[in-house]
Predict the 3D structure of the following.
Amino acid sequence: MKYGIETISMYVPRYGMDLRVLSEARNVDYKKYQQGIGQEFMAVPSPDEDVVTMGANAAQQAIEGIDTNSIRTVIFATESGVDQSKSAAIYVHKLLNLPENCRTVEMKQACCSSTSAVHFALATVALKPDQKVLVIASDIARYGLESAGEPTQGAGAVAMIISAHPRIMEIDSDVGYFTKDVMDFWRPNYLDEALVDGKYSIKVYMDALDHCWKNYQETTDAHFNDFHHFCYHLPFSRMGTKAHLHLARHQKASLASKELQQQIEPSLRYNRITGNAYTASLYVGLLSLLDSKELNLTNKRVGFFSYGSGCMGAFFGGTVLPGYDRFLNTSERVAWLRDRKHLSYDEYVKFYNHALPQNGHSYRTSRNRTGSFRLAGVENHQRIYESVPANVGAASHSEKALAAAPVS
Ligand code: COA
């Protein structure tokens, strides 16, 4: 029996900023962002979006055509959760009107919990092949204004139905793991922005990759050449290239640099124009690869390296299934990314500085361009979510309503 991804979809905010604008504001050579880090555009969530609305928007597409009665588990992976107690999966469960007889849970281990969610889901469907698991990875990557991490910000969500009837990709059960207590990136509860030692994190990432690959090889006897393409966790797209060249060098791969580039480049395209999406980032990379129209990926083997600071890593493989491209909404995704509104620097700062009140008092967020779900505000310490009637998200396009207004 095969287990793997039956459907996969992505949501990215409808606003973003060209990194040329940031490079001017920060007086940094744009080539540093574009070539040195590999980023050209970053997604910026509006004040009426959070990980719940982004996750619900991605999941709404992922469950299209799926009998929701078969979804018995929803796993929400995030490191920018909205509550210390209640799982974001419950909010999504309600917004999507999923059946009551369902378990809902949130998972955390930096950018890697999405991969653990996928593997827990695979184990669930292997035990209960008639059930499906909805896995959602949703995050807002936020660093300080004027910090080194600022150009690597981004946001987005990926949702997948994991089942015993995969249509996109079969995922292997073998995984190479690595865990070590390090402080390369973390966010204490009292901070809104992550703390990161970027250079150290690159080093630890590579170290985790080596250990995961070694453990994967010990488990499977696999070789570098068994894979046609690779997807890496992408805090910024150049990290994927660095990691791939590092692994190839360590494995003494006999491929020319152009061939190595072809193994990785298709998975970097979306990250370059959306930025980091933490837990979702690896799977944004997978969608970027799958949406590459010039490639026929049928039966191609893909190697995945998932990394979560702190740190934990996982290396595993999957095989793209025949007909996979019929189950992807590639044209819609490409159009969505193309049609995003470009923010000016001042608009970006306004969005960045927007914060919900810390006292839980009544508050209404301004209506901006969103997907089908938005955060309407806060009432008595409770987040209030609402559906956006069809076309309103696009039509409202409220450039004038950039600032959020408290209830008077
Ligand atoms: N033209 C082309 N390339 C340039 C350049 C220019 N004008 N100026 C600098 N560069 C290159 C540098 O040589 C460097 O390349 P290298 O990595 O091959 O050496 C690259 O751009 C980055 O420059 P650097 O000086 O190292 O940048 P930085 O100090 O601003 O930090 C990051 C970059 C990525 C470390 C930083 O943005 C960061 O910490 N981001 C967050 C990452 C994260 O979240 N990690 C944890 C989760 S995995």
Summary: The mean pLDDT is 94. Residues 198-220 form the longest helix (23 residues). The chain is about 35% helix and 25% strand.
